Amino acid sequence: MCDAFHLDGSLRDIRVLDTTRVEWIAVLERLRAVADETEVEHPYPQLDPVHPAFTDLFPEGEGTSFAFRARFGAVWFFALPLCEEEVEFSVWPEDVLDGAGVAAVLRFLVEVATASQRQALLTGETVRYYPGMLTLISHDPATGITSHI
Asked: Rounded distance, CA 66 to CA 134, Å?
């Protein structure tokens, strides 16, 4: 399974398709609760600089402007939630060095799928998902099945 993280100069993306603001917030809140460490950067002086409420970062009917990072083990995952319709986090393959790194990615994938109650996919780096895109690893929370190429 480590072949999914071969060093080719591009990121790997963990994504959940066809999402809403509510699912994004659920994922971020879950990650804040279970990750080893999280960080949020935002430009809103009226919000808590370290632990802002995610509902405040996702104002209804408006765009967002913040960054979120979560660390599982030695692996950092990051997101720039600019689009409600697709939860997307990225990870650098060079951070997934061994079995512990792969386990961190799998745990992250399961947490994202569980929080969103939708299938989470690990893919190569792209701007947007497209039908037929190669899925490297996926987790379906309805069946509990994790699969990989």
From this structure: 29
pLDDT of the residue at 143: 97
Mean pLDDT of the chain: 90
Question: For tokens 């069946």, what's the residue?
Answer: 143
- In a 10 Å sphere around its CB, with 0-12 CB exposed, 13-18 middle and 19+ buried, how is residue 48 labelled? exposed
**Contact (CB, 8 A) for 68 and 40:** yes
pTM, 2 dp:
0.90
